[in-house]
Fold Molybdopterin molybdenumtransferase.
Amino acid sequence: MTIDPRLQSGLLPVEQARAQLLESVTPLRQTETLPLEQACGRVLAEPADAQVDLPPCDNSAMDGYALCGEGRQFTLVGKSLAGHPHSGNLQPGQCVRITTGAALPGGADRVVMQENADLDGETVLLQKEARIGEHIRRRGEDVGSGEQIVPAGRRLKVADIALLAAAGVSRVTVLRRLRAALLSVGDELKPLETPAAELGTGDIYDSNRIALKAALGELDIEVVDLGCQPDDPGQIRAAFEKARDSADIVITSGGVSVGEADYTRDVLEELGQLEMWRLAIKPGKPFTFGRLPRTEGVSYFFGLPGNPVSALVTLYQLVLPALEKLRGAGDDVVRFRGRARLLNPIRKSPGRLDFQRGYTYRDGDGLQVVETAGIQGSHILSGFSRANCFIVLPRESGNCDTGDWVTIEPFQKPLT
Ligand SMILES: Nc1nc2c(c(=O)[nH]1)N[C@H]1C(S)=C(S)[C@@H](COP(=O)(O)OP(=O)(O)OC[C@H]3O[C@@H](n4cnc5c(N)ncnc54)[C@H](O)[C@@H]3O)O[C@H]1N2
Ligand code: MOO
């Protein structure tokens, strides 16, 4: 197999890696039909059409009186409540009591708010004349029956669910959920169930798998949990084969660096193709991407570094955009970045795009400020836990001083 020579000599820029990842993955095609109530967060595979007009009829936007014609004096001839329309047609000079959302009776051409009218027996007196069309919501002004209301490819958010429900769409066809196989690699890793007293020297809890599982769960991705594997090429190979055969993507953590027990890349190259390794990102330099072909199709392979902060930063910055494309929702993902003023100096050496962990807030003067969330080692989880944003420092920048303006990227799902 051939590797881009730039990968061997230097480090691949993060933006280039993202673009390459997006180019490499092909969105899912299989679909399923679900009740609307189960579809939030899923990607619509077929456009959805309104089953009814919205609003379904001309109706009132206010509690008050529906009037027929001009003038300031009207005779009250009935009422129209939401769910209980007035049956007759109004003649000029007549009005009915009406509530918000209630159907406008035939002949009514304007509505006056009750605050602007006085009732005297059967007579309604307006404080000032109402304009034609005032406070009337027209049938179909939101959407018309049969109109396409949500396009294919939309990741359904709460507002989409509200619209579809209002328009009478009770079932939708969505792309099936992505399936990810997850496994950790390392002799030192122990399952979380192990009592602390039973840990040997250098043993650690397999926290990455738990964190990655939580992150994928937040994204409504099905997880096939393949546990932790020792630093043994045979066992890693068997686990990769199982992962490849059971999932659309395989996510591993650990064993992608250059240590003597780092077998992940070797096994990847044996079973498939290594497409990307060593990026100009901090933390997360040894991030690995490749493919594991199977009898039918392919499973995409993401090898995250073992260091816990590196694993999550690379998941968020590199894997997620690819997953969004894979599950068909590429264009709906908005990643917000802003600027904030640094409250403390930051150390950085040029060479890698740095995602430091920070805590941002508005100070008493309304200024967006950010402070570092403590020491920045890729093994320091307490700072990550305290943080609410990344401080994004350009690849070639060096140290920063108090008062400098820096780029921040507030945490969004699945980091929140
Ligand atoms: N000589 C070099 N050494 C290292 C380099 C390098 O360029 N040259 N890169 C460093 C960088 S940067 C990183 S990041 C790490 C990544 O190493 P691996 O992906 O091979 O990960 P491991 O060596 O297996 O583990 C690293 C670290 O993370 C802990 N770990 C591993 N898995 C888990 C898990 N599931 N849950 C929690 N913690 C985990 C592991 O115990 C190690 O402490 O390599 C550097 N070395
Ligand atoms: O790039 Mo590694 O992820 O610093 O620790």
